[in-house]
């Protein structure tokens, strides 16, 4: 676990920010802060699926293109995509043109509609997997018992491209765990944001 201090502002950040300036705003304003919006959560899990085998920088620089191509990641709209949309997306040079991943996120949109109907919201379902005790030094693992459980439950419900590593990266980004490095200026901010955040509650079974 390392820190990166930008010469532009002398603020200590997680070491991965050193890879590119593109990461700094994402790190400072988004990564690790709790989210309760279903669309944002669905967008992120889709983008993590697309990242599999690639760098996050590749996905981040194409994020606006992904949003345009996938109806703003409105899962109810995406659930209506058909083979013509798959063909359209495979021709879109602004996104990652991987048929398996494209078909997976369309499938996942359909499964997300089912999940929301059953649970009340995607956010309520997701926050049910927040670990009570993280217990690990930040940025020393790529999976956790909570990410394994989330991955297994999503797969049981028919989701694809949502393995434990993808689920863990999603949980890091969406604030279910605070994996900012010790000494990073955003770690305490993320902790405070979580303390002020009230997770949505699932429908009673």
TrEMBL record:
<dbReference type="GO" id="GO:0006284">
    <property type="term" value="P:base-excision repair"/>
</dbReference>
<feature type="binding site">
    <location>
        <position position="180"/>
    </location>
    <ligand>
        <name>Zn(2+)</name>
    </ligand>
</feature>
<keyword id="KW-0479">Metal-binding</keyword>
<dbReference type="GO" id="GO:0046872">
    <property type="term" value="F:metal ion binding"/>
</dbReference>
<keyword id="KW-0862">Zinc</keyword>
<feature type="binding site">
    <location>
        <position position="27"/>
    </location>
    <ligand>
        <name>Zn(2+)</name>
    </ligand>
</feature>
<feature type="binding site">
    <location>
        <position position="14"/>
    </location>
    <ligand>
        <name>Zn(2+)</name>
    </ligand>
</feature>
<dbReference type="InterPro" id="IPR052891">
    <property type="entry name" value="DNA-3mA_glycosylase"/>
</dbReference>
<dbReference type="Pfam" id="PF03352">
    <property type="entry name" value="Adenine_glyco"/>
</dbReference>
<feature type="binding site">
    <location>
        <position position="184"/>
    </location>
    <ligand>
        <name>Zn(2+)</name>
    </ligand>
</feature>
<dbReference type="InterPro" id="IPR011257">
    <property type="entry name" value="DNA_glycosylase"/>
</dbReference>
<dbReference type="InterPro" id="IPR005019">
    <property type="entry name" value="Adenine_glyco"/>
</dbReference>
<dbReference type="GO" id="GO:0008725">
    <property type="term" value="F:DNA-3-methyladenine glycosylase activity"/>
</dbReference>
<protein>
    <submittedName>
        <fullName>DNA-3-methyladenine glycosylase I</fullName>
    </submittedName>
</protein>
């Amino acid at each position: 676990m390392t820190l990166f201090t930008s010469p532009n502002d002398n603020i200590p950040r997680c070491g991965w920010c050193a890879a590119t300036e593109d990461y700094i705003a994402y790190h400072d304003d988004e990564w690790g802060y709790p989210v309760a919006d279903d669309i944002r959560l669905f967008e992120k899990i889709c983008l993590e699926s697309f990242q599999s085998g690639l760098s996050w920088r590749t996905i981040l620089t194409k994020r606006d293109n992904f949003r345009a191509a996938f109806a703003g990641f409105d899962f109810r709209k995406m659930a209506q995509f058909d083979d013509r949309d798959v063909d359209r997306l495979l021709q879109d040079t602004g996104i990652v043109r991987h048929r398996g991943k494209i078909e997976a996120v369309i499938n996942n949109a359909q499964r997300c509609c089912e999940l929301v109907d059953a649970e009340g919201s995607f956010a309520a379902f997701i926050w049910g997997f927040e670990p009570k005790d993280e217990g690990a030094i930040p940025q020393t693992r790529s999976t956790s018992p909570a990410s394994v459980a989330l991955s297994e439950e999503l797969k049981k419900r028919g989701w694809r491209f949502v393995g434990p590593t993808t689920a863990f990266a999603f949980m890091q980004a969406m604030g279910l765990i605070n994996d900012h490095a010790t000494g990073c200026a955003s770690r305490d901010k993320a902790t405070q944001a979580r303390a002020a955040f009230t997770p949505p509650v699932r429908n009673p079974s």
